[in-house]
Amino acid sequence: MPSWREHIKDAQKMGLNRDTAREIDLMLDFPEVEGVRLGHKCIHNMVGVLMARERYGSNGARYARTHIMRDLEAEATQKFLKALGLRGKF
User: Fold this and answer.
1) 3-42 burial, b for 16+ CB within 10 Å, e for fewer?
2) Full pLDDT tens readout for the chain, 90 residues
């Protein structure tokens, strides 16, 4: 999984500041609705992208999509390496 530091670098390339990126990271990875904590990453989908767009505009939505896609890519890579018996070799 990419670190938030890596995610924030992506955000800065998109013109978002660190604070906004951090808020979106928290929203996506540790969502809350009306003070109730939801399951980890339960909005790692279009719901999260739409929430980011509503709160932070089109750049926020673009960053949310990038965050989610990078996480999914890392998860898929880890599963693939594990299936090949190469987990932890890279």
Assistant:
1) ebeebbebbeeeebeeebbebbbebbbebeeeeeeeeeee
2) 788 899 999 999 999 999 999 999 999 999 988 889 998 888 889 999 999 999 999 999 999 999 999 999 998 998 898 888 886 655
Largest CA distance in the chain: 43
How far is 49 from 52, CA to CA, in rounded Å? 5
Cβ-defined contacts of 38-46 (< 8 Å, 24+): 41/71, 44/68, 44/71, 44/72
Q: Token pair of 60, please?
A: 């926020």
Would you kindly state where each structural domain of the chain is located, as residue ranges? 4-83
Helix (H, G, I), strand (E, B) or coil at 37: strand
Specify which residues 33 forms β-bridges with: 36
Distance CA 66, CA 19 (A): 17
